[in-house]
């Protein structure tokens, strides 16, 4: 059994990931119109999935903030290198208020978590599945672009491994609303808000998707559990597209004396949730 050294900052997004991914993988969407402001639905002629997956590398500064009951619990900033349309990513901590923050590297088949304080790394084999974020974005905007009709079904997509608490039911009907556009990092972004159709469910998510390349430049997920209201916000700044990232960026380059461990199969769900919450 491998000992897991993760901070609260990493544990909370692991739960939030169920929300972040879950709202884009539900089986039915119910479209609603927003009152006032801009048009109820964005007018999009582009192939959303193609635009997103055609980005040849992204470099950015990623900041993730976790708040509980209105108080900031942690703030971590990374140098982020991403390859849209794949599971390849590299997150290098710049600064963090959390007790521990790990470098995270994924080449699509293996996730590496490196802790320089302990001079140790954890190697986690990833499932043999292709990234489907572009497809999820395409489906989301397709539903937003349609006229208001009865909810239409969308076949379920792969979901996050089960955790101890699962705030979102992947087959639950959701309500999606369009809230116009807002600037994020100097670029206009579509603002999409997602909530359960059952208003008694205490969670919601807002996603800001850049209007030209359809890169999710900001995400805010909030939920209430056990009397605690948690908000996880991830935002990208200084975004550069088409950076022609070398494949070497997604290969581990740790010191030779690094201690490497591999978690037991039964423990891998935890690490996979951390992989998903990384972006």
Task: Write up this protein.
This protein has 279 residues and is of the alpha+beta class. It has one domain (8-277): Lipoprotein localisation LolA/LolB/LppX (outer membrane lipoprotein receptor (LolB), chain A, Clam), CATH 2.50.20.10. Helices cover 16% and strands 40% of the residues. A 14-stranded mixed β-sheet has the order 8-1-9-10-11-12-13-2-3-4-5-6-7-14, covered by helices on one side. A hairpin with a 2-residue loop joins strand 12 (216-225) and strand 13. The longest helix has 15 residues, at 8-22. It starts with 7 loop residues before the first helix and ends with a helix.
Layout: helices, strands, pairs:
Blueprint (H helix, E strand, L loop, with lengths): L7 H15 L5 E4 L16 H6 L4 E11 L2 E12 L5 E9 L6 E5 L2 E6 L4 E6 L7 H13 L6 E2 L19 E12 L2 E10 L6 E8 L5 E10 L2 E14 L17 E3 L6 H10 L2
Parallel strand pairs: 1-9, 7-14
Antiparallel strand pairs: 1-8, 2-3, 2-13, 3-4, 4-5, 5-6, 6-7, 9-10, 10-11, 11-12, 12-13
Helix pairs in contact: 1-4
What's a quick, concise take on this entry?
With 279 residues, the protein is an alpha+beta fold.
Summed up, the helix count is 4
How do the helices and strands follow one another from N- to C-terminus?
HEHEEEEEEHEEEEEEEH
User: How does the overall form come out from the CA principal axes?
Assistant: globular
Strand order of the largest sheet: 8-1-9-10-11-12-13-2-3-4-5-6-7-14
Rg measurement, Å: 18 Å
Q: Provide the β-strand percentage band.
A: 35-45%
CATH topology value = outer membrane lipoprotein receptor (LolB), chain A
CATH-level-4 superfamily name: Lipoprotein localisation LolA/LolB/LppX
Stretches where pLDDT is under 50 for at least 5 consecutive residues are: 1-38, 147-171
Largest sheet: 14 strands, mixed
| Architecture (CATH level 2) name | Clam
Distance between the termini: 27 Å
* Secondary-structure content class: alpha+beta
Fraction of helical residues? 10-25%
* Strands, total number: 14
- State mean pLDDT (0 to 100 scale): 75
The level-1 CATH class = Mainly Beta
Number of domains: 1
């Amino acid at each position: 059994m491998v000992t897991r050294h993760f901070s609260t900052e990493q544990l909370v997004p692991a739960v939030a990931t169920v929300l972040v991914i879950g709202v884009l993988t539900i089986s039915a969407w119910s479209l609603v119109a927003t009152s006032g402001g801009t048009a109820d639905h964005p007018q999009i002629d582009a192939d959303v999935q193609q635009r997103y997956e055609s980005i040849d590398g992204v470099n950015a500064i990623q900041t993730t903030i976790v708040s509980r009951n209105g108080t900031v619990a942690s703030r971590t900033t990374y140098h982020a290198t991403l390859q849209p349309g794949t599971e390849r990513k590299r997150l290098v901590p710049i600064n963090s208020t959390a007790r521990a923050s790990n470098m995270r590297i994924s080449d699509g088949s293996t996730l590496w978590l490196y802790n320089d304080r302990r001079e140790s790394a954890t190697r986690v084999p990833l499932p043999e599945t292709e990234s489907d974020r572009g497809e999820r974005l395409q489906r989301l905007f397709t539903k937003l672009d349609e006229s208001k009709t009865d909810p239409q079904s969308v076949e379920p997509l792969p979901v996050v491994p089960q955790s101890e608490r699962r705030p979102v039911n992947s087959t639950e009907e959701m309500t999606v609303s369009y809230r116009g556009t807002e600037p994020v990092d100097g670029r206009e972004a579509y603002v999409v808000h997602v909530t359960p159709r059952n208003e008694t469910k205490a969670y919601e998510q807002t996603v800001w998707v850049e209007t030209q390349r359809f890169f999710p430049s900001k995400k805010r997920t909030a939920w209430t559990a056990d009397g605690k209201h948690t908000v996880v916000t991830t935002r990208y700044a200084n975004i550069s597209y088409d950076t022609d990232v070398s494949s070497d960026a997604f290969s581990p380059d740790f010191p030779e004396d690094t201690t490497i461990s591999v978690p037991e199969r039964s423990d891998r769900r935890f690490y996979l949730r951390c992989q998903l919450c990384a972006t």
